[in-house]
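Schema walk-through. Below, the input block comes first and the output block second. Nothing else is stored per chain. Lengths vary across the set, and this one has 318 residues.
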Amino acid sequence: MRDAAAKWAIAGVVAVLLVLPWWASSYHISFFVSVFMYVALAGSWNLFSGMTGYASLGQGIFFGIGAYAFAVSTVLLKWHPLAGFALAAAVPAIGALLLGSVLLTTRIRVAYFAIVMLGFNEIAKTIVANIKEIGSSHGLTFAPLASNLVAYYFLLGLAIGVTALAYAIKQSRWGLGLRAILADEVAAEVTGIGTVAHKMAMFVLSAILIGLTGAMIAWNWSYVDPYMAFDLAVSFDMLVMAVFGGVGTVMGPVLGAVVMSVLKEGLSTTIPQFHTIIFGALVLVLIIWCPGGVIQVVDVLRRRLQGRRTRVAREPAK
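--- output ---
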């Protein structure tokens, strides 16, 4: 009953978001584009890092690769945007395969993996900034989107797709294998689970989705340069939002991205001088006191409410 109610609630929210542009202002549409971007990024990070335990501090490298693959194909090669998106999915996938074949086939420590990914992100930024043929540090400029509704609906669809994919994986036998890897990778391998195949598949899937997000954001901004595309803040934001919401869960990254986006927007407009300090303090407090994130807080409140209802229902019987 509760699952059915939750599904109907989610369907209702999606329906509202589909018709929202009919009456929303351009400011609100831009805000929701940002929210959908963060939902897609946090969810994509969670597909790999949250489900395997390999926390990545440099997953934003695929955001930059996707953005530049789209830029090069549409601006320099004059390809159709659909072909550009195909390339923005293919190139990050190839990059993830290459990186994964080095990092995920060996028994590298999780902490080292996080730092190595951070290093690769900075290497990619430096290389792109020194290639004159693709604009070097000056970047590339796009023809602007005909309407920001293109970005709105594309990123809404991507955010829904990432979340639905996480749910499907969690319910599948593949998801059971990922949970075994998360609990104890050595034990999972001993029991016959293909740990390398599981990790590689999720790494590539995460890279594709992040690359598509980067391509759409670059097109929406009509500009891309190495410092925007490979900004470490992109990697840190998707990580923090997933952890803030509830790492390894389906709805955690969604809640984390939405709550953090609303908090950032609200604090930056009301107290712009101190909003970063207050925002950082709130994030730290939640992570320290509720390591399970917002989803844990929601679970605790729901259990307490159910317990209260049960006690009230039993009182007349006494």
